[in-house]
TrEMBL record:
Domain ABC transporter: 26-271
Entry keywords, A to Z: ATP-binding, Nucleotide-binding, Transport
Protein name: ABC transporter ATP-binding protein
Organism: Nocardioides zeicaulis
Family affiliation: Belongs to the ABC transporter superfamily.
Alphabetized InterPro entries for the sequence: AAA+_ATPase (IPR003593), ABC_transp_ATP-bind (IPR050319), ABC_transporter-like_ATP-bd (IPR003439), ABC_transporter-like_CS (IPR017871), Oligopep_ABC_C (IPR013563), P-loop_NTPase (IPR027417)
NCBIfam families listed in its UniProt record: oligo_HPY
Amino acid sequence: MPTKPETRTTSDLIVDVRDLSVHFDLRGGSLSRLLGRDTGTVKAVDGVDLTLRRGEVVGVVGESGSGKSTLGRALLGLVRATGGSIEFDGRDVAGLSRRELREVRRHIQMVFQDPNAALNPAMTVEQAIGDALRVQGVRSATERRTRVVESLERVGLSPVELFLDKYPRDLSGGQKQRVVMARAIINGPSVLVADEPISMLDMSVRAKILQLMLDLKQQLDLSYVYITHDLASAKFFCDRIAIMYLGRIVEIGDTAEIFAHPRHPYTQALLKAIPNPDPSVSVARDLPRGEIPDAARPPLGCAFHPRCPLATATCGWESRDLRTVLEEHWLRRGADVYAEESRILGDLSALDEPATTAVLGKADPAAATELVERIRAENPDEPMWRGVTSIDQTDAGVAIAFHDGTDPALRRDGGVEVACVLYGDEGPDGAEAGTGAAAV
Ligand SMILES: Nc1ncnc2c1ncn2[C@@H]1O[C@H](COP(=O)(O)OP(=O)(O)OP(=O)(O)O)[C@@H](O)[C@H]1O
């Protein structure tokens, strides 16, 4: 599958994100208490490279908590980057004053998921859309009305007279999202960042709104960053797709290539999770093992390794994975086995501190060593055991040591870039390293 040309030219690129980080410091704040954390840093976006060319639709896809919205908000300067740069049409967004940022926001607009939250219930359609013009300094009420009418016609809300005086409560979900679109395009932007723009709409109107967005793209020469957890809509809508996991892009490339030949095990799992319209075809819907981990305490090595069916010995296995495996073992074996074995291994809370060694069962090291060996023998295919280098009886208990993990960077593999030890020059194929994520 051929990929699009990789050369960056100034005129070609409209958004150029390099090594972007957005870290939230949780120390002591009320949000951290709300989230049950009292210290630490959430790396919501962590070293992301992304480009958007004129006329292109780039999808940012991942589960809840992967950092998609934070990335989108950073593009508009709605959250502050803690590292890296975001260039919009050659200007670094981070270095702009508030006035300059307002000017940039004329050219780059955001469409949010929930049209109810995006529209003020006390404003009519005309007021809501006209307000975006007022903010940009359009003082003439006549000009505002003319442009609001034009904008409503563009988004298919006609005859416009029926809509101008309506309040959000008078409109359907699809109509509300059309009003949001009308407001987003009224100042003639060149980029729209659309954050789950259809996920709160009825199935019947989702395709229509996506089609509207494609029509607007053609008519108004727009480019989109399309943020979604839904690969199926991304397939329909996007030229390229970036798959995000825990603040990082783990795979990026042309949509057709990603669907035809997904490399990263996470991309493969997301693709398997797309519901199949044919009920006779049964596919695994669930992603393997558990939910996306806490971004304030990411797994060692590759962040996806605890859920990865293909994880190798050096993908980052550690103490917390051991705890998960022990708990899964006890869930399978029941309360009596749990009572007996947890007594031998003692308190597991030391395993919560990420480490490549773990010591358990101080009271009876011999019994603890025998028990860990037995648990391993019962389920030898559990991928975590590949990461264990030794299980030794010591005076302090059974000492379990893991390989040091690898945290793979994005590397080119055929038509995509992928961050996984199975690909690129770190992988068994020995393929050549890529030229940098942003050049996809
Ligand atoms: N202001 C904030 N302070 C602290 N942590 C935050 C803040 N905003 C987001 N986060 C955290 O950053 C991580 C990424 O969140 P983000 O909302 O960007 O993910 P997402 O992929 O867009 O998820 P969703 O689809 O649920 O919106 C999460 O762990 C989230 O809890």
